[in-house]
Request: fold
Amino acid sequence: MSAPSGDADRLLTFEVGHAAYGLPIRDVLEVADVGRVACVPTLPIGVAGVVNHHGDALPVVSRALVFELDEASLPEPQHVLVLGDRPADTGRVGLPVDRVLGLAHAPGVVARGNELVAERRPIDGRIVHVLSTGRLLARVADAIEGAAPRGAH
Reply:
């Protein structure tokens, strides 16, 4: 399903670790408040946890892990970006961010290669690292799968 034409060229910009990032707004289901993160018994809290999101458990991945940063150097997150597939809204995941900067008009990005950052663009006087949502979600899945204990066969 294609995104509405108004969303096709818009990025939600946000900050993590003093760097500016952007995701296509069509891939962000919601910007939510940060809730209390509960641990998942099978995962280290440094990898992922869950928060109460409208009565459902929303997995929240460590931003330090996703962006390969030192957790101790990051400020407390102000928001959680809820990412997932539209229109089904299945496979949702939360990504804590330091703060949301806003919306920016930007032509569509074409991801090439394997990197999380699809391209870098000057927006509002800053270099914004435009992320590939598919690669971001794949990195999240790999991190969680890699940290999960192996079951006995």
In short: The domain at 10-147 is CATH 2.40.50.180 (OB fold (Dihydrolipoamide Acetyltransferase, E2P)).
